[in-house]
């Protein structure tokens, strides 16, 4: 099972920023639309431009670290209507690396000042505004956030189908499989479903 988002106004929200740099974010995703800006997972703020996020823009998977500047690392071309695994490693204020299906993209080393995100979101992000933007269009499952830099081998294991709770569990701070009930299986945080994202089927991803 997964959660299906309409690309217009549906998103999931946790009322706290579950991580900051250094951290790793990961998700399985099936995109219905890969041309318009769409956000997978983010930690961000409603009052200042402070955000770490995974997104797609113009058929490119990207991860972004935004504060005093916008530092973007390109993770490669994304196809619609297929399940892929996406991850972003935010190692520091001057190092961020995207992964698509376990394969690393180019590291971005632009220096970004310290940020203070206050919310965590699945399917949208806050850009220092009171309302979210760039709603995800498609299905997502297996959302994980770690307060650590996962290795390339660990991310590859996720892309092969390992669930988030089996990879560096001592550093996992948020884990929502998005299977029927909205549950953070790691920290017990409340997940709010805004505007009715719905449950949908998806292929089994853990052997």
Summarize the structure in words:
- There is one protein chain.
- This protein has 207 residues and is mainly β.
- The chain has a single domain, classed as Jelly Rolls (Sandwich), CATH 2.60.120.
- The chain has one helix spanning 152-159, and strands at residues 2-6, 11-14, 23-31, 38-44, 51-57, 60-66, 70-77, 83-92, 95-100, 103-104, 119-122, 137-146, 172-176, 192-194, 198-200.
- Strands 1, 3, 8, 9, 10, 12, 13 and 15 form an eight-stranded antiparallel beta sheet that branches.
Radius of gyration (CA) equals: 15 Å
Helix content: under 10%
> Count of DSSP helices?
1
> Under the CATH scheme, which architecture would be assigned?
Sandwich
Largest sheet: 8 strands, antiparallel
Percent strand equals: 35-45%
Distance between the termini: 15 Å
- Listing every helix as H and every strand as E from the N terminus to the C terminus, the arrangement reads EEEEEEEEEEEEHEEE
Question: Shape from CA axes?
Answer: globular
Unreliable sequence segments: none
Under CATH at level 1, the class stands as Mainly Beta
Q: What's the average pLDDT? A: 95
Q: What is the count of β-strands?
A: 15
CATH topology: Jelly Rolls
| The number of domains | 1
């Amino acid at each position: 099972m997964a959660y299906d988002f309409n690309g217009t106004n549906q998103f999931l929200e946790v009322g706290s920023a579950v991580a900051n740099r250094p951290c790793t974010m990961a998700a399985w995703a099936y995109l219905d639309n890969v041309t318009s800006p769409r956000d997978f997972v983010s930690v961000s703020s409603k009052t200042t431009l402070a955000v770490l996020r995974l997104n797609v823009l113009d058929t490119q998977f990207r991860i972004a670290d935004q504060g005093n500047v916008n530092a973007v690392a390109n993770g490669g071309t994304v196809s619609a209507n297929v399940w892929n695994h996406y991850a972003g490693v935010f190692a520091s204020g001057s190092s961020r690396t995207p992964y698509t299906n376990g394969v690393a993209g180019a590291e971005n080393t632009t220096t970004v000042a310290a940020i203070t995100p206050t919310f965590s979101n699945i399917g949208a992000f806050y850009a220092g505004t009171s309302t979210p933007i760039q709603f995800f269009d498609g299905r997502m499952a297996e959302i994980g956030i770690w307060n650590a830099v996962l290795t390339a081998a660990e991310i590859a294991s996720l892309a092969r189908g390992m669930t988030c709770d089996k990879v560096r569990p001592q550093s996992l701070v948020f884990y929502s499989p998005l299977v029927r009930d909205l549950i953070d299986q790691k920290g017990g945080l409340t997940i709010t479903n805004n505007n009715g994202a719905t449950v949908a089927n998806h292929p089994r991803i853990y052997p």
